[in-house]
């Protein structure tokens, strides 16, 4: 465990140190994001912070390859180097987008090519669940599934990168949950060394190192070079753990715990994946491109109901932690205890999520009720006055006939007197 903490500290420390330099480089070469209609920030801010994260991850990887405890993961095994090469390529693609705003189809094509390269280099999901056992997939199917998962995770993290510290925090939370789980699984092996755990702790380190510069108000954005890198790394770690499962060695009693990592890209990135799916459906329903920008993401909705940027980020972190850790605790605790704990957490997070809306909306509802009540009282008062007026008019008109009759009688009497 201490070795993993050391690697995480190295990755985070290097990222924290080089990020200010990357910021100056981004300003010099023009990688500064203009304020767009869908953006939350109000002043142009440098992008390309993912380059600092890539440097931190690369330095930590090189140092890890020299440590005796982890050196066996690099001996006669090029998988980690393939992952590092893919990370460099995906970050370069993101840097190009940060500089020139690439067309989304061109960017998607680049993501697919890099994913296929990584799958061709040996990072593949070989075993798949079918019924009560695991079956070995064909090479072409394995490459297709691997590429799909990588591209989906890359774009999910990219979609949720809309507030300072949001994407890096969600990925770090998911990375901690996954690293803890993979470490527990690795303890049953002869060597505690785990490539998946190493990747995750390095990823958590670069996220923490970058958040120190990206917390609101951010001095630098990670850009596509960072969000794409994080989505790529968290999926690679998951595939590393599941990619080489031997169906003959998996007993049904440990079937779910061992194969759980195939679900982790969705579980630990549930909010980004949900946001991406909602955005795609929303845009297609309007006849727009799936990559058409708008201000309807989850973080935009949080701001709309009254949260501050920091408050929205912290609450979304809480939801991410609930889903990531809750999905794993069911493997180690009784389901009813996990369900009770998650229910309490859901109630608390829901209250925190809706508090600004209710705080402003409840007085508005009360004011609307008072206005409605006053309108009803006024209408009742007006109707009462109208009724009284109508009754008074009837009262004045009723004795009118007798009075006229009396005047006519007096007139007749006078006429008779004059005749006589």
N-to-C CA distance: 138 Å
| Fraction in beta strands | under 5%
The count of strands amounts to 4
The structure class reads mainly alpha
Low-confidence region ranges: 246-255
Taken in chain order, the helices and strands follow as HEEHHHHEEHHHHHHHHHHH
Helix content: over 70%
What overall form do the CA principal axes indicate?
elongated
Number of helix segments?
16
Widest β-sheet, arrangement of strands: 1-2
| Main sheet attributes: strand count, strand direction, barrel closure | 2 strands, antiparallel
Rg computed from alpha carbons, rounded to a whole number of angstroms: 35 Å
Mean pLDDT: 80
Structure description:
The chain has helices at 2-29, 50-64, 68-71, 79-100, 104-120, 139-160, 166-186, 195-214, 223-242, 255-259, 264-267, 270-285, 298-304, 309-329, 335-397, 400-419, and strands at residues 32-33, 45-46, 127-130, 133-136. The chain is built from 16 helices and four strands. It has a two-stranded antiparallel sheet with strand order 1-2. Strands 3-4 form a two-stranded antiparallel ribbon. By secondary structure, the chain is mostly helical.
